[in-house]
Amino acid sequence: MADPVFKQKIRRKLIQIAAFGFTNCHAGNFITGKLYNGKFKEFCTPGLNCYSCPAAAVSCPIGSLLAVTGRADLKVSFYVWGFLLAIGAVLGRAVCGFLCPFGLLQDMLGAIPLFKLRLPKALTYVKYVILGAFVIVIPTVLVIATGKSAPLFCKYICPAGTLEGAVPLLLTHEQLRDSAGALFWLKAGILVLVILGCLFVRRFFCKLLCPLGAVYGLLNKVSLYHLTVDKSKCIDCGRCAGCCPMDVDPVKHPRSAECIRCGACRAACPAGAITIGFGDGKKRAGTEEAAEA
Question: Residue 203 pLDDT > 60, yes or no?
Answer without folding.
Answer: yes
